[in-house]
Amino acid sequence: MARLTILEHPDPRLRMQSQPVLAFDGALARLVDDLFETLYDTRGIGLSAPQAGVLQQVVVTDLSDDASAPEVYVNPELMLRSGLGLVEESCLSVPGVVGNVVRAARIRIRAQDRAGELFERDLDGMHAVCLQHEIDHLKGKLFIDRLSIFRRLRMRAAEAVRSRNKGESAARRSGTG
Ligand code: GNR
Ligand code: NI
Asked: What is the 139 CA–ligand 2 centroid distance (Å)?
């Protein structure tokens, strides 16, 4: 097993569409194991393959606090959604940012397990939030895209200041400032 490096925003790979898994082979088993090792290492509740730079539709979750509830979702699809809820989210690929996101309160997921067996599962609470967040990753979407327009404008302003400061200190170092 190996701990994978998690890509961080604004890495362009986080914006790409992940491809369906076609082969349920040893390579997939290794990827799933590595995603779990990385998930437990970072103490997250869910992790998607594209966050590790692997553009395949693979998600792992564990919402227990003692690593006792590992779940694998290969090629997950949202079948039903109902209700709405507002939950504060964070993302391993967007360190230092938290924000409230509106999500469906209850969902039905259809997915395959690591052996390729198809299953359906109804989820609610944090489980439902987590799966919606991970399926977004498979589509190149991040939770910051779902924050309020006010919040996103404020983040963009802060990012502009940061990159300007970075440019100024680089210019100072190179003597062109
Ligand atoms: O660890 C995580 N916590 C979390 C909290 C609220 C909503 C979603 C999440 S998922 C996140 C890990 C992550 O970034 N998965 O993609
Ligand atoms: Ni995330």
From this structure: 12
